[in-house]
Amino acid sequence: MKLILFSSFFAIFCLFVACTKEVKIEIPGYKKQLVVDGNIETGAPAIVLLSSTNDIYSPTNLDAYINGFISGATVIVSDGTITDTLLEICSDNLPPGTEEIAAAFFGIPVEQLINLHLCAYISNQIIGEVGKTYSMKVVHEGKEYNAQTTILSPTSFDESYWKPEPGLPEHGFAWMKLSDSPQSGDAYKWEVKRISDIGFTKPFGPFFNDRFFNGLTFEFAYENPMSFNDPSVPDQYKGYYKMGDTIVLKLSKLGNAEFQFFEKKYNQIFSAGNPFSTPVNVPSNISGGALGVWSGFSPSYDTLICIP
Questions:
Q1: β-bridge partners, 293
Q2: Which residues contact 2 (CB under 8 A, 6 or more apart)?
Q3: b/e per residue, 145-173, with b = 16+ CB within 10 A?
Q4: N or C: which end of the chain has fewer CB within 10 A?
Q5: Is 250 in contact with 299 (CB distance < 8 Å)?
Q6: Shared-domain flag, residues 38 and 135
Q7: Model pTM?
């Protein structure tokens, strides 16, 4: 009996050893790439930020963020009639009176921003117009990158209103009624700000398309993204607008290629660190080997006073 048991264990051991195989995974080396974050919207100039990718094993801190920005490139934007070489403006040499605007744009307090060297490329000749297509060319370190985007006709929301949540008579979400066009593939971005704020804030998942409501009229609620970083708001009221608040709503139309970039980008952000998530490749509409996006937006606005 002992001989039989020993033989059985020996056979299982041999089988286990025979099925074991050393697996070697070759991790691709780091390849530095240009990252473009450019946009133009109705009534506003073209703005382009340039940065470079970082090694996944490099430090993630403010210094790395600052050092990633690129200055000294040539950025050209054309609407088919006017061609403009964008002006490079840096945070340590801002025109007087623009400090607050730049701070809201970069998301860094003014007192820190003016001591940093963060650069943006801004057009002083081309202002966004509905229906126009804008080409962009970036020349950096002997390489050329190109992209195109179109500012589409905007979709205005039918109605906006505020209503309190059950059990919270003075707090609630803001609501919007939207009639989507019969043409499929419409995509949107929504943002909000307090009436006194300079810049708009994007909520959780700000980009969406008409995949599930093409051609329909529907209503949806949206949260207060400013409250999550406001220490004066108690935890139980975060995400809500308080009765009496005055806010400005912004709904922007964008193209499908640009939406695909933002959708995949946010999916990647939200799933980071999840070992069970599906890997996401973020597409780009920029040729030449750069990452990022060149996008056109056509916004609609509404001012909402949060009262029943």
A1: 37
A2: none
A3: bebbbbbbebbebeebebebeeeeeebbb
A4: N
A5: yes
A6: yes
A7: 0.85
Instruction: With a cut of 90, say whether residue 187 has pLDDT above it.
Output: yes
First-to-last C-alpha distance (Å) of the chain: 84
Coil/strand/helix, residue 272: coil
Give the domain-ending residue among 123, 150, 177. Answer: 150
Rounded to an integer, what distance in angstroms lies between the CA atom of residue 238 and that of residue 127? 37
- Give strand pairing partners of 221: 175
Calpha distance 189→202 (Å, rounded): 8
Domain span at residue 125 reads 34-150
Residue 130 has φ and ψ, to the nearest 5°, of -60, 135
119-148 pLDDT, tens digit per residue, is: 899 999 999 999 999 999 999 999 999 999
Amino acid letter, residue 191: E
State whether residue 167 is helix, strand or coil: coil
The total number of residues shown for the chain amounts to 308
**Amino acid letter for position 244:** G
Whether residue 263 lies inside any domain: the answer is: yes
